[in-house]
Amino acid sequence: MTEKIPTIQDVARIAGVSTATVSRVLSAPDMVRARTRERVTDAIESVGFTPNMAAQSLRRRRVKTVLVALPNIGNSFFGPIVDAIERACTERGYDVLIVNRRPDSSDDASLLSYFNSNRADGLLLFDGSTSRSNWSARVGNRELAFPTVNVCELIEGGGLPTVLSDNEGGVEMAIDYLVRMGHRNIGRVAGPEENVLNRQRGLGYAKALKRHGIDPGLQWRHAGPFGFQTGHDAARRFVELADKPSAVFCDADEIAIGFISELHAHGLTCPNDVSVMGFDDIPFAAQSSPPLTTIRQQHKQLGRLAAELLMDMLEGGLQGETAHVVLACELVERQTVRAIAPTQT
Amino acid sequence: MTEKIPTIQDVARIAGVSTATVSRVLSAPDMVRARTRERVTDAIESVGFTPNMAAQSLRRRRVKTVLVALPNIGNSFFGPIVDAIERACTERGYDVLIVNRRPDSSDDASLLSYFNSNRADGLLLFDGSTSRSNWSARVGNRELAFPTVNVCELIEGGGLPTVLSDNEGGVEMAIDYLVRMGHRNIGRVAGPEENVLNRQRGLGYAKALKRHGIDPGLQWRHAGPFGFQTGHDAARRFVELADKPSAVFCDADEIAIGFISELHAHGLTCPNDVSVMGFDDIPFAAQSSPPLTTIRQQHKQLGRLAAELLMDMLEGGLQGETAHVVLACELVERQTVRAIAPTQT
DNA sequence: GCAGAGCCTGTAAACGATTACACAGCTTGA
DNA sequence: TCAAGCTGTGTAATCGTTTACAGGCTCTGC
């Protein structure tokens, strides 16, 4: 019994006007006389008309859709951010298309195709693989026009507008705190080597340590992808260590939580045997046992600002200046860091 | 320097054929002679042509896009499922549109509009508010045609194809296990009252208890939305209890983890003071301290099967039979349940 | 040499909206 | 009375594909 979906023609016929008028009622209401307008709105109402987006996009040359390219939807870090993006977008009438950017399908081409096949007007790109700085070149080549905002991470030299946290400052804050708590032997479990975040956070780590007269080069270090597994691996190496750091800074909460969890499995406890800090403040950080001391990123803000920025770009054309938003981080003190008497090493 | 995006016309001109032929090369290659075909593919290659989806959708009357309506993207339970959906969809050339279904914007109308405005061909609906069984009515009324698959939850009486876990059986499994471990005073922290999952899991709970000669009506119970907060609330009530259950079954891992976390804050520990079980096996369950004993849902499978089913429907038309897939759950034994000597109450 | 049957390919009409342009009807002011 | 200027509306072209239909070509068998 599938009735046909009503078109603008149906509305026009019922209201006794031309399709042009119906269209105008929808997009420029005060261009049409009040009485006519009312007849049209009634007709729209009565048949339940909704403009066909395909037709509209074809004619208008834009789809009011934003593409969100994530490295891994499964990672709980992205949940709140995507949530904020979706909110901001629907508020302004944009749809949100999600694509999981598998590292293997490294084809930026497939992202670009979303643009020139008219499936998305703009792109929110979560990507910081430094190896991918050729993206900008690629873009510069021919399709410069795909409006893109880098979120959370950034592509160095890409020249793209960016919204991210002050990663360097955030880590400095963490290290300062650990030092203040008496730690001077501070290890680090880092993110993937080829990632910008890893570099930025590494910078903050080194800078802060140096400021306190500690040689960053001498500290214990482990690196791996963002995720529990890296925490596990690090913990297994950690327990073997002869000279254990009294504190370990982890580049991500998931890593920190994996680290602590595996530590427990080996009979060590946090913060008694070692203090641990994370980075992100994902929702679980507050729930783990013990609750994780960490550096908070402003997830909601990151998502919302990036989305707003992109939509502004889409609507205002390119504004000359390419924006660069950096959000401050915040120290969240919970229970995985213990104050110790400063030892003379 | 924004060059124009190439159209099928450009390709046709370059290859020296008509647009019809180009179109055929793309959608029915063996309808055109090998030599011509090659000239066309070369032309396509050389200008980097990608069909304009808006035009294609307009003509073909389908957009190859699936709408995913979640109650809350932020909830980490959905991560792996959405991941699986996205994988299955892109494999078959479908895009994934995400919409966060805020309870307040209760308008099913807005979901339907995705359909009749030609923005999505089908819907993966995560929704189990029993109050919403009018959805089916609404659908039956006029827009029956929006192909929909219920995922994880289901709308009772909606008559929609469904993919979900054996919630009842899963909880029975949990209770059987707790009883086997010596528990006979088993509380429950339930999900939101108006949710089907709550009902289904409640059924399993009651059934299993009765089978073991325990009166479900006499057990301690707390209910609230899925999320940490409910766990916290439950814990605060729990610590006040005179006659504490020796075990508590939680309707979701997030609830269980919140419960344990808040218990710790009050000086009680799990599983020494109380055994706790969750449901879902979200990624964090294995990482929390102590690792959570829970009932695993097959997230990947749920997502993939639902997506496949929907796409099959879209491509094969409606198959007469409306499918009803129920996936088995699995008990994951970790460390939040302690064996106790059965007490004679 | 020709009818008939296949193959390929082109022509042109959709799909459902938007919008430049034209124009009808009314004011207004000279 | 008429030119000029508004308003409000309709006409028709357009966006970039797909596809029904028609027709040209080649091949076969007589």
Describe the fold and architecture.
The structure is a homodimer of 345-residue chains. By secondary structure, the first copy, chain A, is of the alpha/beta class. Chain A has two domains: 60-165 and 299-327, Response regulator (Rossmann fold, 3-Layer(aba) Sandwich), CATH 3.40.50.2300; 167-297, Response regulator (Rossmann fold, 3-Layer(aba) Sandwich), CATH 3.40.50. Helices cover 42% and strands 15% of the residues of chain A. Chain A has twelve helices and twelve strands. Chain A has helices at residues 8-15, 19-27, 34-47, 53-60, 78-91, 108-116, 134-143, 167-180, 196-211, 228-240, 253-265, 299-316; strands at 65-70, 95-100, 122-125, 148-151, 162-165, 186-190, 221-223, 247-250, 275-280, 293-296, 324-327, 330-332. Chain A has a six-stranded parallel β-sheet with strand order 2-1-3-4-5-11, sandwiched between helices. Chain A has a six-stranded mixed β-sheet with strand order 7-6-8-9-10-12, with helices on both faces. In chain A, strand 8, helix 11 (253-265) and strand 9 form a beta-alpha-beta unit. Chain A starts with 7 loop residues before the first helix and ends in a 13-residue tail after the last strand. Mean pLDDT of chain A is 90; it is low at 133-143. The interface between A and B is large, with 55 and 55 residues. Strand 2 of chain A pairs antiparallel with strand 2 of chain B, so a sheet runs across the interface.
